[in-house]
Design a protein that fits this description.
single chain; mainly alpha; two-stranded antiparallel sheet; 2 strands; globular
């Protein structure tokens, strides 16, 4: 046991691989116990986690603000939809096709992230927020402008193969979707955890803390900021592609400016700068709209007029209120609170 601990402590990659395998096994067992609806929700959390983890790297580690990650998710989603449908039209089908479409979605979104990153490297503060905000507005509008390709507001259907026949004729499709999304999320977390623990992560932290000092120590600040955008965009592209697969459709309404705001608030509430905080943020992205829906349903019974006025705005209000409460009570987010509690628990344990 002592040698195993020493080996895991010496190798970051090995430690992360072991943790990923354990998490994957636990999630596999969880999907066997959940009903189809909960499996679909778990799959949605996994898809959002890809995006929140990427946004954590960008905002939490490199210090760059993005209000346009919902648009980057849309780029990945539309790319996956176009690839899947084009391959199906040419009778190229099978479960092996989907990874290729997701990879195409990630690559195209990385290219879009590189373009935005080049502009972001020259901008700071509100100017950078303004550029990313323009992206969040422009990308959904482009689907209307190029209606022949993207089918305007109606969006596109996404051809997705059913679960493999080897799993049996009655295998729940939602469980298969959960496996796909969880695999994508675990790979994202594994890659980002290794990146942020290595030289890339140290470079981003140096740029975030003091750009002048980082530049004097030989760091190419602009290159680091562009790379942060590219890495973050890859997570957003994969998350968007997985959401398109889960919904089997993609439309501009699913990737509005509101989604970009939700993503940013989620990573702040979860704990900015921590990949574990991105997990809490992804959970909140699924749980809080459900809470808002329940509140809205309760209002319908007591005051239908008030429920009608709040319809569509209640999730944003719940998210905003949660953000205010968390920032007052927990400035480091949910993960910061858990870190402090675990630290206190360790100090109270008797030393050997």
């Amino acid at each position: 046991m002592t040698r195993l601990r020493a080996l895991l402590g010496a190798s970051t990659l090995l430690r992360h691989l072991v943790l990923t395998a354990l998490a994957g096994f636990a999630l596999y067992l969880l999907t066997l116990e959940l009903d189809p609806f909960r499996n679909f929700q778990l799959a949605t959390v996994a898809a959002y986690l890809c995006a929140t983890a990427g946004l954590t790297v960008l905002t939490g580690l490199s210090g760059q603000l993005s209000l346009g990650h919902g648009a980057l998710m849309a780029v990945g989603a539309y790319t996956v939809a176009l690839c899947q449908n084009a391959l199906a039209e040419h009778d190229v089908t099978g479960n092996g096709v989907l990874p290729l479409s997701l990879l195409a979605g990630v690559l195209v979104t990385m290219a879009a992230g590189a373009v935005i990153g080049l502009a972001a490297a020259r901008l700071r503060g509100p100017y950078l927020a303004g550029v990313t905000l323009a992206v969040a507005v422009a990308v959904p509008a482009a689907t209307v402008t190029f209606a022949e390709l993207f089918n305007s507001e109606q969006g596109l259907g996404v051809y997705v193969e059913p679960p493999p026949p080897a799993l049996g004729p009655y295998f729940p499709n939602e469980r298969w979707q959960a496996w796909l999304a969880l695999l994508g999320a675990l790979l994202t977390m594994l890659l980002l955890a290794n990146l942020t623990r290595g030289r890339f992560g140290r470079t981003l932290r140096a740029v975030r803390d003091d750009e002048v000092a980082a530049r004097l120590s030989g760091i190419d600040v602009a290159r680091a900021q562009v790379l942060a955008f590219v890495v973050s965009a890859a997570g957003a592209g994969l998350g968007g592609g997985l959401l398109a697969v889960l919904a089997q459709s993609v439309s501009p309404g699913a990737f509005s400016l509101t989604l970009s705001l939700f993503l940013l608030m989620a990573v702040v509430i979860g704990g900015l700068g921590s990949l574990a905080g991105a997990v809490w943020g992804a959970l909140l992205l699924v749980a809080l709209p459900d809470l808002a829906h329940e509140l809205s349903s309760g209002l319908v019974a007591s005051s239908p007029g008030a429920a009608q006025r709040l319809e569509g705005n209640l999730p944003l209000a719940v998210f905003g209120l949660t953000l205010i409460v968390v920032m007052i009570a927990l400035p480091d987010g949910v993960q910061g609170l858990l870190r402090r509690l675990s630290g206190r628990a360790r100090r109270r344990l008797p030393s050997r």
